């Protein structure tokens, strides 16, 4: 698979929905993840990321305008020991609980399916990063309907060891805007990861569609020490 520009990929897609990037920094020192959310409705846009423990949670920016919290209020990022879990829904908790019970990432997701938001049936995308003793690997998952058929769930897991410096994988919920929204297809896209945490965060945020972007989370984890830095950007301030 050819590596492409993450920034150009985002600029050329007005509505990728929610997206996860995992990979390794350009300098090779850090495990990198980014998670962003977008929204077309007032309810979806009425959100911010806030810190919760070692992870984050979505919150309503204006609680008086919150109409349905079921699919928009959740913890996208949680940390269990040396594992960092990133997802686009409350399956974060499902994975956390499964890993805590010695299940694998894939086994933990067996009880979940795509979101029940007909006619889109938004895919559930998830990732887990494992950083320990100077070693780093990660996995990404997507649970999606079978071409819009709610009676059938297709499950795909992709595992990556020893990611190259400056390289990541990008998975997102939608191929682009539409009605219904077309689900992501294929293997996570191989993308570049350039610069340090602030340069990378700013580039990703600026590349997201100005009307639809809502929030962005970025974390760089030192592969040798496990220490991390985090950046959060919210459109609502």
Question: Would you write up a description of this structure?
Answer:
- The chain is mainly beta and 237 residues long.
- It has one domain (6-234): Glutamine Phosphoribosylpyrophosphate, subunit 1, domain 1.
- It contains five helices and 13 strands.
- The protein has helices at 6-11, 42-45, 91-100, 105-108, 197-207, and strands at residues 19-24, 30-38, 47-52, 55-60, 77-80, 83-87, 124-132, 135-146, 149-161, 167-172, 189-192, 213-222, 228-234.
- The strands form three sheets. The protein has a six-stranded antiparallel sheet with strand order 11-10-1-2-12-13, covered by helices on one side. Strands 5-6-7-8-9 form a five-stranded antiparallel sheet, covered by helices on one side.
- Strand 1 and strand 2 (30-38) form a beta hairpin.
- The mean pLDDT is 97.
Helix and strand layout, with pairings?
Blueprint: H1 6-11, E1 19-24, E2 30-38, H2 42-45, E3 47-52, E4 55-60, E5 77-80, E6 83-87, H3 91-100, H4 105-108, E7 124-132, E8 135-146, E9 149-161, E10 167-172, E11 189-192, H5 197-207, E12 213-222, E13 228-234
Antiparallel strand pairs: 1-2, 1-10, 2-12, 3-4, 5-6, 6-7, 7-8, 8-9, 10-11, 12-13
Are there runs of 5+ residues with pLDDT below 50, and where?
none
The average pLDDT is: 97
Major beta sheet, strand line-up: 11-10-1-2-12-13
> Using only CA atoms, what is the Rg?
16 Å
Number of domains: 1
Class computed from helices, strands and strand pairing: mainly beta
Q: Report, as a whole number of angstroms, the end-to-end distance.
A: 39 Å
Percent strand: 35-45%
The tally of strands reads: 13
Helical segment count: 5
Give me the strand/helix succession: HEEHEEEEHHEEEEEHEE
Shape: globular
CATH architecture name: 4-Layer Sandwich
Largest sheet: 6 strands, antiparallel
What is the CATH class? Alpha Beta
Helix content: 10-25%
Write down the CATH topology.
Glutamine Phosphoribosylpyrophosphate, subunit 1, domain 1
Kindly report the name of the CATH homologous superfamily.
Answer: Inosine monophosphate cyclohydrolase-like
